[in-house]
Each structure stands twice: as structure tokens, then as C-alpha cells.
Structure prediction request, 195 residues.
Amino acid sequence: MAGAAARVVAVAKEGAIDDYIKELTTTYFDRGPEDSSIRSMVGNACKDMLSMASDAMKDFLPQLLPLVFIAREDEEKEVLEAFQTVWEEGAGSTSAGLRIYSDEISDAIRTHLASQSWVVRKMAAKAAFASVDAGEGAGAADAPRASRAVSLIPALKVCISNPRMWDGKDCVLKVCVYSCLRAFVRDYSCVCSCM
Prediction:
């Protein structure tokens, strides 16, 4: 089924492709957290889309890769592998993908840190850490990483302020500390106002 949809994407209008990506994203984050088969189906659909309709998908990577970046943190091996393949084909490398799609990925992480699903929150927290921990080299490359860290601090603060404990909240604490350190190293004075 996903293969057939991918073939349709290759010849579909831009609006239809955009709607399909939105549907896959909604399916993954709204219906998928409790059912790994749904998450796996979305991963395979994304993988098929990128391999069978790569030309059509080039303009839609900013919509697709935020889902993929977060879904790479899935705990189901089969799902994780499908999304890891999509990330490698669509972004090339973690540092390149974050450099090009940083704003979109940060927006998605902030959105899903506030999800009603604890599973999604945990994946978003792990993705947040991956986004600020990504090895981009030294010097000027640290500025984008620090900028991502600063942009995530308000959402992380909201997660921490909720007194309820949930699986993955430790990752939120870890990324919050790491984000503050990244921002401090780059001398971002706005960190003080966020905290």
C-alpha cells in the first residue's frame, strides 16, 4: 500500500503531496504512539516515498524531515531503522540535516514536547538532546547548535515545571542542562531571560 502511494506521489500535485505528508505526520503522532504497526507503516511509507519519488520529494523535505528526526528516537527497532534510512537519504548526515532544517526540526520538537502522549514526549525529548548534541565540528559550527539550544529552552522549562514524572523526563533534564551549557559557552545572554 505504501509503495502504491509513493508511486502516486511521484506524479501528484504539490498540494496533494503536502496533504499526504501532513496525514502521515498526524497518523504517527496521534494514532501511532500506542500501536507500533502504525508507526512502522508510516516509516515504510516515508521510506518508499523518498526512494520511489525522490524528485517530487526534494521540495517537501522541510515538511517530512522533522517527523523523521523525532521518529528516529522510536524504541521499536523496525520503526527506528525505517526512519533512520529516510533520514540518511533525505538529510545525508545529522549535522547537514540540522544545519539545513534546524528551524523546522526545532518547531516540531517544541510542539511534541507538549504532546498528550508520553511516548511522543519521550521521543521529542531524545530528539531535542540529539539536536543540541549533534557533532558539527568546532568554532562557528557551534553557533547553530547553541541557537537550537536556546530556542528549545522555553519548551524544556515547561516540561520540567510539570511535577508529574514520566518515562523520558530525565532526558528533558539532561537536554535542558546541556542546552544551557551550549548557550552559555556561546555567550547567549537571552538564556538568563528564558530561565
The chain has two domains: 1-92, 102-195. Residues 189-195 have pLDDT under 50 and may be disordered. The first helix runs from residue 2 to 9.
